[in-house]
Amino acid sequence: MRKATWMTSVLGAAVFAAMTAGTAHAQACEATEFSSKTGQVYLNAETQLLQEQNPAGALSELNKLRSMELNCYERGAVLRLSAAIKIEQGDSAGAIKDLEAAIQAGAITGDDVAQTYYNIGQLYLRDDNVVKAKEYMERWINAGATPTRDQNWQMAIIHQKLEDYKGALPYAEKVLASDGQNADRQVIDFLIFLYDRTGNKAKKAQLLERLLQRDPNDRKVWDAISGDYFAANEERKAFEVQKAMYLAGLLKTEDELMRIVNFYNRFNAPYEAAKILEKEINAGRISPTMERLELLANLYQVAREYDKAIPVIQRAAQQAKNGKMDERLGRSYFELGEYEKAISALQTALNKGGLKEPGYANVLIGQSNYELGNREAAREAFQAGTRFADGRRAAQGWLGFMSAEVETQRQFAIFEASVRVEGLKNEKKGCERLKVLGENLPESCLTLDERLEAAEAQLAELRQN
Questions:
Q1: What is the pTM of this model?
Q2: Smallest Cα–Cα separation from 379: which of 344, 358, 403, 407?
Q3: Would you indicate the residue range of the signal peptide (predicted)?
Q4: Residues of the domain holding 457
Q5: Neighbouring residues of 344: CB distance < 8 A, sequence distance ≥ 6
Q6: Does residue 439 register a pLDDT over 70?
Q7: Which of 42, 120, 28 lies closest to 82 in space, CA to CA?
Q8: CB atoms within 10 A of CB 252
C-alpha cells in the first residue's frame, strides 16, 4: 500500500488530526463520544487508514458504521474520516462533498473551518477547477487567514488563470515585497504582465528599469520599453530607446538597423541617418541594394552634403539601367559648381533615358553651359528643354532672359557708340575753331574725320542689328 503522505502535506498534520480524531465538537451537537460498539468500528477504520495504510479497508469499516444508528458526534467523525479516505483514493469530489457536509453539520468548528476551506480549495485545484478553487481560497482568507508568500503566489496565479488581472495584482505585489531585491525574474515578469494588462504603465516601467539595472544587455526588456512607447504613440521616446540600443550594439539585423536609420530621418536628422546607413553598408550589415544606395544619396542631398552624396550616386549609377542616378549625379555636381561634370552626367542620363523630368535635365545643362560662358550651347539646351512639359516654363524663362541680356548688351553698345560719336563731333568743332584762329592744329585733328566716320558707321550698324 502507498503511504498516506499527500494528505498530511497538502492538508496539514493538525487539520488531518482534526478530520480524523473526532476532537472537534459540533456547535449544535451535545454528544461528545462514541458508544462502545461504534467506537471500536471507528478505531478499526482509523487503524486501517493510518497504520495499515489501507484506504479500501478503512472504507469497508467506515461503511459498517454508516449502517449503524449514529449520534451527531459520530456522524461528524464519520464524514471527516470519509473525506480523509477519499483523498487517499484520489476522489477529490467525494472528499469535498464530505468536508462540506461536515462543516454544515457543525462537525468542524473554530479555526478548523478556515483551514478546511483552504483544503477544499487545494482539492479543487488538483482537479483544475480554478473557479471553485478561487471561491474557497477567498473563503479561507475572509475567515481570517494570513497567506504565506507561496500562498499569495498561488492566489495570484489563480486570478491570472481566470483573467482577473486586477484581482491578481495585490497578491503578486505582496510576493514581490516579500522577496525584496532578491525577487527572481519569474516574479518580476509576472508583475510586468499584470501591469501591462491593467494599464499601469508607470509601475511597469519601474520594473523594466529594475531589470535593466540587472542586465543592461537584455534585449527583451529594451524591446518591451520601446514597444510601450510605440503603443502609446510616443515615437520620440521610442526613438531614444532605439538609439540607445543601437549605441549599445544591441541592434543586429538589417531590419533593426534600417529602423534606426528611418527614425533619424523621420526626426529631421538626415545627415545622422546617412552616416549610420553608409557605415552599416560598408560593414556589410545592410545590403547595398539600389534602393538603399538611392536612399543614402537622397539623405546626403537633403542634408546638403553633396560632396558625400557623389560617390554613393556614382556607385548606384553604375548599377542602374536607366538614367535616374546619373541625373541625380548631375544635379549634385551642379550644386557644387562643377559644371563640366554636371553636363557630362546629365547628358549620360538623357542618353540612358527613363527620366521623370527630362526637360529639367536639359535646363540644368543649359544653366551649366551658361555659367561656363557657352552661350550658344546653353541656348540649344534650353530650346531642347522647351520640348518637355516639366522643363518648358524654366527653359522659356532662360531663353527670354538670354534674349533680354543680348538686347541689353546691344543697347549699351549703341549708347557707348553714340557717346563716342558725340565726343568726336565736339572734338571736330574744337579743331575748326583752332583752324579759324590760324593756330597750328594738333596731330589728333588730322585724323579726326577718319575716326568720326568709322564711329558713325559702327553706330549705324549697331542700330540696324
A1: 0.51
A2: 403
A3: 1-26
A4: 415-464
A5: 330
A6: no
A7: 42
A8: 10
**291 HSE (CA, 13 A, CB side):** 3
Largest interatomic CA distance in the chain: 181
Distances (CA, A) of 261 to 181, 337, 352: 38, 30, 31
Whether pLDDT at 132 is above 80:
yes
Among 146, 174, 208, where does a domain finish? 146
Are 185 and 157 spatial neighbours (Cβ–Cβ below 8 Å)?
no
Beta-carbon contacts of residue 30 (< 8 Å; ≥ 6 apart): 72
Amino acid at 291: E
φ, ψ dihedrals at 305, nearest 5°: -100, 70
- The answer as to whether 167 is a domain residue is no
Most confident of 56-60, 62-66, 187-191: 187-191
Element (H, E) at 180: none
> Cα–Cα distance between 322 and 329 in angstroms, integer?
13
Helix intervals (H) in 67-109: 72-88, 92-104
Q: What's the mean pLDDT in 221-240?
A: 84
CA distance linking residue 35 with residue 233, whole number of Å: 77
Residues 6 or more apart whose CB falls under 8 angstroms from that of 159 comprise 134, 165, 167, 168, 171
Q: Which of 129, 146, 163 is the last residue of a domain?
A: 146
- pLDDT at position 187 is 93
